[in-house]
């Protein structure tokens, strides 16, 4: 682990939300927006300073692209997810979510269990395992047909859990629910405990893009057609935040919170409009009948 990140993890527990944290954020935002730095604000500091204010519910269908996490700045490789404010050009680092191996695998869990072995995703994992190059997921080498089947069963169980309980924020996942995914042949209890919210970034134009983690849950939510999915804002482009500052006439920290609240309100409004459409459609149908 790089020394700078080690330091961030050591210092971040000392940070408390409040006026001082907001003033620090306002200062580092100005540094990036004035191009004195390309990126700033280690995510560990932001998570401590903003906490639950970084959590929003979004429509999974909004996620069309993902931001490549590890990029080059011309001198070194940078993990964007280790930062929160970024002022660089993202165009070359944005790629479509689909098609992808993850979406192909998640499509497979919607097939009847007795047809799993016929799916392209299963056949691909089996083929690379036979060549001695098994894929590694959650630290487990999927080297045998049994492990590959267990891998798909794990996500089939996750799909069923989401269908039954809804897509819950991590803090609302009970021990009973989490227990169904812990300490299996393809996932350790430690991995389940370390699970985070699906992470998203806000691009310069306000587009929401997925970044690091939550690949499978996002694919399942999209496949199920869910209207709401909890996410954590992990990275924001300073151009978007600058627009929020101008729009709200608030300091950067407060403008950030307002912008994230708008994401929540957008999902609520969409749900209301959809329900109204359904209700009106039902009423119209009743009149016709």
Overview of this structure, please?
48% of the residues lie in helices and 16% in strands. It has 289 residues and is α+β, with helices and mostly antiparallel strands. The chain has one domain (3-280). Strands 1, 2, 6, 10, 11 and 12 form a 6-stranded mixed sheet that branches. The chain has a two-stranded antiparallel sheet with strand order 3-7. Strands 4-5 form a two-stranded antiparallel sheet. The chain starts with a helix and ends with a helix. Mean pLDDT is 87; it is low at 283-289.
Q: What characteristic shape results from the CA principal axes?
A: globular
Succession of helices and strands: HHEHEEEEEEHHEEHHHEEHEHH
Distance between the first and last residues' Cα: 67 Å
Q: Biggest sheet, in brief?
A: 6 strands, mixed
The tally of structural domains comes to: 1
Sheet/helix structural class: alpha+beta
Stretches where pLDDT falls below 50 for ≥5 residues? Answer: 283-289
Strand content: 15-25%
Question: What is the residue-mean pLDDT, rounded to a whole number?
Answer: 87
Helicity, as a percent range = 40-55%
The number of helical elements comes to 11
Secondary structure tally: strands: 12
The Cα radius of gyration reads: 21 Å
Short description:
The chain is α+β, with helices and mostly antiparallel strands. The chain contains eleven helices and twelve strands.
